[in-house]
Amino acid sequence: MSAVENIEFEESPVPATELMCVQSTPAVISVNFVEIKEALTEALKKYDVVVTAETLADAKKLKIELNKNATEFDKRRKVAVESVSAPIKEFDGQMKELIAMCKGGVEKLGSQITVFETETLNNIRNMLGEALGREWDALDVSAEFRKANINDLVLLGSITSTGKLTGKVGNDIKSRALDDKGAENTIKLRLSELENRSYRAGLKAPLTRAHVEVFLFAPEADYSQRLEAMLQSEVQRQERAEAQMRQQMEMEQERNRKAQEAAEQRIREANERARLAEEKADQAAQQQAAPVAQEQTPAPVQQAAAPQGQALKVYYAPMSERMVKLNEPSFDSAAQAAIKAQQADGQQYGIRTKSDGLIGIVHAGHVFWRA
Predict the structure, then answer these.
(1) Which of 2, 64, 110, 119 is deepest in the core (most CB within 10 A)?
(2) Which one of 113, 139, 165 terminates a domain?
(3) CB of 318 within 8 A of CB of 324?
(4) CB neighbours of residue 355 within 10 Å
């Protein structure tokens, strides 16, 4: 049986309840209750006193007799009640049987109705989903924005007697699909404007969807307010970053300037030391040449050979640290060692004799002066 087929029941020509004919005759039990009560009351009067030794025996006898009478009264009551209640009990049992039959039918029909309605509702849900899918496709709604909910439309009243969706439900489906398309257009417009709004706010790098995802689908007023707050925050962050970068660049430039000045100062000092050493060497040379000019003897030949004899006792040291002595066996070996040392530390080196006489200067990677 299809979920949308109608179930038709044949109407009973005579309802079952109209077949019931109940006839009852009120139960009547006759008993001379008044006479018995009066006699019993009269018999008990003489014992309505405090029991004493004289009345104890009679009181016990009356007690036994009263118990017998009570037992007999109860027995006759039960017999009479049983005789008149038997038809009532039979009727009660019959009615309960009929009630159980009706309830059994109700339960069976209820189960069938539940199965039918469940199958029908599932079919309606599928019809609604297919109709909504067609509307989405017609409007070219992206998968991300297909969010319309149809659970509230899954009702037996959503279809006609022919098993089709009602016109009202069809229009409702179209309206919900249009809402989804409108939401998609809104989000696309927001994302397309995001870059321009970022640049207008002063950002060098525009915001992306990842930045605004948390409130991208919010109502327009809320979205605009939160976006503006984020743009201001990002602009401030950018300004702080640029200020920090400028500060770092200025500090780097200052360090480079100071390093350049220090390097130039060292060059000036080295040049000054070289100039002083050259002047000192000139003076030493003039002093050595004076005796030769005066004596006019072969002594100059012997004096010229003196440095060669002294070369075996030379040492080299930085010009600024004369107390540091690094011995070498000859002038040439001292000069080569001083050149290597200068390449390592950039200082100007002097070559001296044991008697602290300056006989050479190493500058700029070569022997600048030699006595």
Answers:
(1) 119
(2) 139
(3) yes
(4) 7
Q: Kindly give the interhelix angle for 167-201 and 220-295, rounded to the nearest 10 degrees.
A: 20
Q: What is the pLDDT of residues 47-63, one digit of tens each?
A: 676 777 877 888 788 88
- Tell whether 364 is covered by a domain: yes
Identity of the residue numbered 140: D
pTM: 0.47
Cite the DSSP H helix spans in the chain. 33-45, 56-139, 167-201, 209-212, 220-295, 299-310, 331-345
Residue positions counted in the chain: 371
Q: What is the DSSP letter of 159?
A: B
> Does residue 300 fall inside a structural domain?
no
Q: Strand pairing of 358-363 and 366-370? A: antiparallel
Residue partners of 316: CB distance under 8 A and separation at least 6: 326, 328, 334, 335, 337, 338, 341, 349, 350, 351, 352, 362
Pick the more confident residue, 21 or 135: 135
Cα–Cα distance list, 328 to 305, 310, 336, 338, 366 (Å): 19, 11, 10, 10, 17
Coil, strand or helix: which one is 150?
coil
| Any domain includes 207 | no
pLDDT given for residue 4 in this prediction: 43
